[in-house]
Amino acid sequence: MDIKELTSPCGMGCFACGVYKDNITDEMAQSLAGMLGIEAKDVVPCDGCRSERGSIFLGTTGCPTKTCVESKGLHNCSECSEFPCENQMPVADQANIFPHNTKLYNLSRIKLNGLEAWAAEAGMIQQKYFKGKFAPGKGPYEGEDTIQSE
Fold first, then answer.
1. CA of 7: how far to CAs of 11, 54, 97, 110, 147, in Å?
2. pLDDT tens-digit profile of 122-138?
3. Considering only CA atoms, which of 100, 132, 95, 78 is closest in space to residue 13?
4. In sequence order, what are the residues at sequence separation of 6 or more whose Cβ sits closer than 8 angstroms to the Cβ of residue 63?
5. What is the distance of C-alpha 30 from the center of its chain?
6. Is 34 in contact with 42 (CB distance < 8 Å)?
7. CB neighbours of 125 closer than 8 A, spacing ≥ 6?
């Protein structure tokens, strides 16, 4: 697996994505089909954000972040002198479905520890995003609610 090739310009790990061609399950294809309003048999697994087709979620429009990174001759946004920019700004819209709010965290971890070290933790980061609980000031955690009154 080529970690560099399977890390999107915006800091998502294609290798840890449930719709990436090597990871997609029948259950994920069914879920994706329901979201897209198509038959599961018509779901085309993603080849990764850096592939010719790019992310399956962008359709034919292409990715402005990918275009920006490529035009600057960079691998990802963490290498940019303007990082972070508005392209990485978290937003609540569809945050329960897509891990887009992890981009800024992922890019910061890449910048801090390097691509390989981040790749080793990318699956855990995505798991915590979707399965973890949130406590103000604590970040994601696993298990029961640990908010204590003082």
1. 6, 12, 20, 10, 35
2. 988 988 888 888 888 87
3. 100
4. 9, 10, 49, 54, 55
5. 20
6. no
7. 102, 105, 106, 109
Question: What is the per-residue pLDDT across 90-149, written as a single tens digit (0 to 9) for each?
Answer: 888 888 877 888 899 999 999 999 999 999 999 889 888 888 888 888 778 776 554 554
Q: φ and ψ at 128, to 5 degrees?
A: -65, -35
Look at residue 88 and tell me whether its pLDDT is greater than 70: yes
* H or E element that contains 113: helix 103-113
Question: Quick one: CA dihedral 125, 126, 132, 138, positive or negative?
Answer: positive
Contact 83, 77 (CB under 8 A): yes
- pTM to 2 decimals? 0.79
CA dihedral 71, 51, 99, 26 (to 10 degrees): 170
Q: Tokens 């994505």 sit at which residue? A: 17
Question: Which amino acid makes up residue 94?
Answer: Q
Q: Name the strand (E) or helix (H) holding 56.
A: none
